[in-house]
Amino acid sequence: MTNQATQPKNPYAGTAKVVSGSGSHVAQQGSVYRSGVSAQSVGSTMLWLGTISLPAGRRTSAHRHEGHETALLMTGGQEIEIWSGAKLERCEMVRPGDYLFIPAGVPHVAVNRSPEDAEFLGARNDPAANESVVLMPELDEIVP
């Protein structure tokens, strides 16, 4: 049995929490993240929610997310390519209004060839602001 006095107390337990927008950071795969709900901002234990952008003319490095699923809604920009699969063999176009699901462990690359930044609302079942990303440089040259 655990002594409650020794457990760190979540200051947000039992109440709702409004989160003002936070600063952004460039994730190791190259997209720009702005956390809203996270372990750091509200003590979330199972969920991250925020915005993600991919600047015009840029792409992410080949990577996978270890141990968590990602769901995205494209909210702005023109379109991006999402390459996925063990050898990045599948390419689909994602446009504003489209939802995108990326299972845990699936290698992928996002490419924004348009002149506008691509914007997404994103959620994942990993509450950390800095998610568990595994870079896969051996796949980077597959996507033109």
Integer count of domains: 1
**What is the CATH topology classification name?**
Jelly Rolls
Q: What percent of the residues sit in helical stretches (DSSP H or I)?
A: under 10%
CATH superfamily membership: Jelly Rolls
Ends distance: 56 Å
- Count of discrete alpha- or pi-helical segments spanning 4 or more residues: 1
Number of strands: 11
Structural class of the secondary structure composition? mainly beta
* CATH architecture group name: Sandwich
Give the neighbour order of strands across the main sheet.
Answer: 1-2-3-10-5-8
Described by strand count, sense and barrel closure, the largest sheet is: 6 strands, antiparallel
**What percentage of the residues does DSSP assign to strands (E)?**
35-45%
Rg, Å, rounded: 17 Å
Order of helices and strands: EEHEEEEEEEEE
Mean pLDDT over all positions: 90
Unreliable stretches covering 5 or more consecutive residues = none
CATH class: Mainly Beta
Describe this structure in words.
There is one protein chain. The protein is mainly beta and 144 residues long. It has one domain: Sandwich (Jelly Rolls), CATH 2.60.120.10. Helices cover 3% and strands 38% of the residues. The chain has one helix at 39-42; strands spanning 24-26, 32-37, 48-54, 63-65, 70-76, 80-84, 90-94, 99-102, 108-111, 118-124, 133-135. It has a 6-stranded antiparallel β-sheet.
